[in-house]
Design brief:
The protein has 10 helices and 4 strands; from the N terminus they run H-H-H-H-H-H-H-H-E-E-E-H-E-H. The protein is an alpha+beta fold. Helix 5 packs antiparallel against helix 6.
């Protein structure tokens, strides 16, 4: 009895720890250093409600009515009426490509209701009276939130995930949770198998060395591959959100290697991963740079 109780307690503790980790991972991008001033947004929304009460009431009532109509279309279908209200996803939206999203009433309703709610949120943002920079931030976070809330993102509301789970006796769910835990530990979502590539082994292998560095970057000079080189060097400056090896991938698709083979002397800026203590550094454009 004690062994069973201890095992249950350990399982519950593990689940609770994972829940806290998951919550922290979701909330982290919205912390106070994200540049999103929630207080300013709430103030603007409140002011907009006071100034234009009729517009906000009309917006709320319109989408509330649409949701009721949508619900009634599935629970009380009318003879001779269209089977279900059409609310087609964008042509490029691949989230709802599975046939169940259109053939099964439960999944179709989830997709329709989600798309309707997303449109409602976007219209609210569009009518918000904010300064342009703050409004762009609100629009960005709203789009991220809407995308994150898609029923296609959750295993219990995605027909493809449910089908795969049944076919694999739950193995796909186990592997998915393991990947989720690993991504939470890293603080980012893995898009590829990161173990397949390694800098210096099969990625960024063009010969070169660091000839200068400071708190923000390193400057790499690549070794010439020709007996003579052009007089004017080629300096590559990748976006600061990218790694330098975006321009020096594998030999067959390396822009840096291609340039030195053509006789250029190539320098590459490699931006540093900024630690938290340097997170408030900003860009300054001098007159010489502007020229």
């Amino acid at each position: 009895m004690n062994d069973s109780t201890d095992s249950t307690d350990a399982t519950q503790a593990a689940i609770e720890a994972f829940r806290r980790q998951l919550l922290a991972g979701v909330v982290k991008p919205l912390d106070i250093n994200s540049g999103f001033d929630a207080a300013e947004v709430v103030k603007a929304l409140t002011a907009g409600l006071v100034e234009d009460t009729e517009r906000w009431r009309e917006l709320q009532n319109r989408y509330y009515s649409k949701q009721l109509e949508l619900w009634a279309a599935y629970t009380q279908p009318q003879a001779g009426a269209p089977a279900r209200p059409p609310f087609e996803p964008a042509a490029a939206d691949r989230r709802f490509r599975a046939p169940e999203w259109r053939k099964e009433p439960y999944f179709e309703y989830l997709a329709q209701s989600y798309l309707l709610a997303g449109q409602w949120l976007r219209e609210i943002v569009e009518g918000t009276k904010l300064q342009p920079p703050a409004k762009r931030k609100l629009d960005f976070f709203t789009r991220q939130f809407v995308d994150a809330m898609s029923p296609a993102n959750f295993p219990w509301s995605n027909p493809e995930a449910i089908k795969l789970s049944a076919e694999t006796d739950g193995e796909s769910v186990r592997l998915g949770l393991r990947n989720l835990a690993a991504d939470l530990d890293k603080g980012m979502i893995s898009m590829t198998d990161e173990s397949a590539f390694e800098v210096g082994r099969n990625l960024a292998v063009t010969p070169g060395e660091v000839i200068f560095e400071n708190d923000f970057m390193q400057l790499i000079q690549y070794r010439p591959a020709t007996d003579t080189v052009f007089e004017r060097p080629l300096v590559m400056v990748p976006p600061c959100i990218n790694k330098y090896y975006i321009l020096d991938l594998q030999p067959e698709n390396s822009l840096a290697r291609h340039a030195i083979v053509q006789g250029h002397t190539v320098f590459m800026v490699s931006w540093r991963n900024m630690p938290p203590e340097m997170g408030r550094a900003t860009w300054t454009i001098t007159s010489s740079m502007a020229c």
